[in-house]
Amino acid sequence: MKKILFISLGCITFTLGTIGIFVPFMPTTGFYLATAFLWMRSSDRLYQKFINSTFYQQNIERVLFKREITTKGMLKMFASMLVVFAVPFILVPNFWVRVIVASIYLAHVIGLSLYFKWDTLFGKNKVEESLDD
Question: Is the dihedral of CA 9, 39, 63, 106 positive or negative?
């Protein structure tokens, strides 16, 4: 029963994640991580097939584990985040809430930019050398 439930939920999260590739505000990464978790717990065959798929390779492994993202991908991510953060910014007529929302958005942009482009900005060898000291 548990195995069937996990396989079914994995199919649902996989479908939602695949739809999220084409719909800007659906979290593809979150759904694909849930799919991997559910299928890992239920079916080794489905799990292996999923982690070897191009969907997983492009949206999870390349972005999260190898930290490789195109500039177009980053701009798309930041534009989606801007729309999400703009909703409370526009709807809540409180100055301090707007300051906090804008600060959180800027922190996300700066933090994610540094996360994905650290090696490009500072060089991989410089980071490794500073860790060795």
Answer: positive
Whether residue 114 contacts residue 121, with contact meaning beta carbons closer than 8 Å, is answered with yes
Token pair for residue 76?
């798309």
CA distances from 131 to 20, 98, 124, 126 (A): 38, 38, 11, 9
Query: How far is C-alpha 49 from the geometric centre of its chain's CA atoms?
Result: 21
Helix residue ranges, H only, 23-70: 28-42, 44-51, 54-56
| Alpha carbons 16 and 14: distance in angstroms, whole number | 5
Tell which phi-psi region holds residue 123, choosing left (phi > 0), alpha (psi between -120 and 50) or beta: left
Taking only the tens place, the pLDDT of each residue in 54-105 is 878 877 777 777 777 778 878 888 888 888 889 888 999 999 999 999 999 9
CA angle centred on 87, ends 74 and 55, rounded to 5°: 35
Measure Cα distances from 16 to 5, 21, 26, 31, 127 in Å: 17, 9, 8, 7, 38
pTM for this prediction: 0.57
